[in-house]
Write a structure and sequence with these properties.
CATH architecture: Alpha-Beta Barrel
Largest sheet: 8 strands, parallel, barrel
Number of domains: 1
CATH superfamily: Aldolase class I
Structural class: alpha/beta
Helix content: 40-55%
Distance between the termini: 46 Å
CATH class: Alpha Beta
Number of helices: 11
Oligomer: single chain
Shape: globular
Length: 326
């Protein structure tokens, strides 16, 4: 007699589906990005990213109290300075916007885990992630500036530094500077496989960081390459990265999976602005169910192997998960 295989037995009710579910999202999985700007009483919505804002520090504190109560434990800060120059010098000043925000948040919400994005693009008048000499991004000169920024963030209260510039050797430089200044316990989350992606468009509006000329293809990765991503990750780990990252997430699930299988290190994925904006726009048109699509997408990122998910939906996802489990 032919025996019919019946995998549907394990899908027959909600309870059994919950029992055998392989991938489960948790509030602790998420990090939410925030954009902090100079001034007071500023909360301005970013047009390309509805539901996300430019916050002055006073308004950011109110927002972070709200999301902390909801269950968000970690955030990553991006600063928009008052002044820009060719070297991005405001990025490492003691009274820089991120440095001010770190001190204020630590005073009000000491339990919140603070990650800082480390790059020059928001601070340079040309919008590139490194120092330009004779029309070229000068790698090693840029490293000196990145070290200064990392040290200033650590002194202001950052718990983790996240270099996103994609310069060669930046993890080793930052680790050396931190250790030499007794910040041995400050972790580094490296944007290890950061692609030259078209999905960053809304972020560049949010961070005022679009390059004035050219693009970032000489330092960010070619979207066609996967083995190169593994080489980049291996270098960052060898230089002292504590956490590795793949960015973007949804278009690069294959890279997340390869990294998760190959490396025994915590892996983050950045669910980027373009991924957010597409789903948000379709949901506003009524073409998609936002909650279902978002939770499916975030589950896919975790299923691929990411332990940490940086997402603009972080607080909303936590809220939805709590509602579903109530």
């Amino acid at each position: 007699m032919h025996l019919v295989k019946r995998p549907r037995r394990l899908r027959s009710s909600k309870n059994i589906r919950n029992l055998v579910r392989e991938t489960i999202l948790n509030p602790a999985d998420f990090v939410k990005p925030y954009f902090v700007v100079p001034g007071h009483e500023i909360k301005e919505e970013i047009s390309a990213m509805p539901g996300n804002y430019h916050f002055s520090i006073d308004q950011l504190l109110l927002e972070l109290k709200r999301v902390s109560q909801l269950g968000l434990q970690s955030v990553i800060l991006f600063g928009l300075p008052e002044c820009k120059d060719s070297e991005g010098s405001s990025a490492w000043q003691k009274d820089g916007i991120v440095q001010q925000a770190l001190r204020a948040i630590k005073a009000e919400l000491p339990e919140l885990y603070l990650i800082t994005d480390l790059c020059l693009c928001q601070y340079t008048d040309h919008g590139h992630c490194g120092i330009i000499k004779n029309g070229e991004i000068v790698n090693d000169l840029t490293l000196e500036r990145l070290g200064k920024i990392a040290l200033s963030h650590a002194r202001a209260g950052a718990d983790m530094i996240a270099p996103s510039d994609m310069m060669d050797g930046r993890v080793a430089k930052i680790r050396t500077v931190l250790d030499q200044n007794s910040f041995n316990n400050i972790a580094i989350m490296a944007y290890s496989a950061k692609y030259q992606s078209a999905f960053y468009g809304p972020f560049r509006e949010a961070a005022h960081s679009a390059p004035g000329q050219g693009d970032r293809s000489t330092y960010q990765m070619d979207p066609a390459n996967s083995r190169e991503a593994l080489r980049e990750i291996e270098l960052d780990l060898a230089e002292g990265a504590d956490i590795i990252m793949v960015k973007p997430a949804l278009a690069y699930l294959d890279i997340i999976k390869q990294a998760a299988v190959k490396y025994n290190a915590p892996l983050a994925a950045y669910n980027v602005s373009g991924e957010y904006a597409m789903i948000k726009a379709a949901a506003e048109k009524g073409w998609l169910d936002e909650k279902k699509v978002v939770l499916e997408s975030l589950t896919a990122i975790k299923r691929a192997g990411a332990k940490i998910i940086i997402s603009y939906w972080a607080d909303q996802a936590i809220k939805w998960l709590k509602q579903d489990r109530a």
